[in-house]
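Quick one, T. Sequence first:
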Amino acid sequence: MDAFWIILTGILVVASSSILGCFLVLRKMTMVGDAISHAVLPGIVLAYLFAGERNSILMIIGASGIGLLTTFLIEFFHKKGNVQEDASIGITFTSFFALGVILISYFAENVDLDQDCVLYGEIAYVSLDPLLIGDIEYGPKAIWLLSFVFLMVLAVIIPGYRSLSLTTFDPNYAQAIGISVTLWHYVLMSLVSLTTVASFESVGAILVVAFLTVPAATAYLLTEKLKSMILLSILFGVLASIIGYYLADFSNGSIAGAMATASGILFGIVFVGKRLYDRYHRLTTVSQN
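Structure tokens:
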């Protein structure tokens, strides 16, 4: 039963992350997702200190607020300060992440968090923290939280698909017909922050970053249609979750690390296969001519 909950946790994380990751890849903003996943740490610590418990909704609010602040500062330094975008990302997320580490170190006796938890997560232990209503268990809390986040992502992406698509592919046209590019940028970043915060304790920042980037990049190799890209990215993410779990079980290693590795292996297979197919197609076309 533990295997089921672990794999389901990975699937729920990748379902939300892959959808958002497609927009991040197309917008060339994947490193912003990396930045947010690390920068939310001080928000988590401060919310924990304020609320006194790790499962508080205040943790999600606090960390999501820091995630949005990270996005704002990256844009501010890049557009107002003429700092290169990659440099502004590096400056912002390293500063916030370092601040979070300092806060954990300073309040170590009061904060039930550590850097390893943030980086690697505790996906193997999701079944040990069940949702209890009365004396009845309703499955791991992480499953309920991640399911809620996935539904939130769908609730925004489905009705906002046209606006997000236009602001992704042609922001100037979107602006000309009255669609706010800035608004949808921050809507997307809010969802990335929410997904990251909800996932960090279960799977860690490393796997969140991997799932925000690699499945979408893998799907991008195979299609130029956004809807197909989203579906393929979820498929590759689900495969990575399943393969990664059994890889970790076989090697007695980190489950989150194995899932990220499996995701990278799938990308490598698709990349090589696509290159071979393209070369074969060119050679066939030349020989026919």
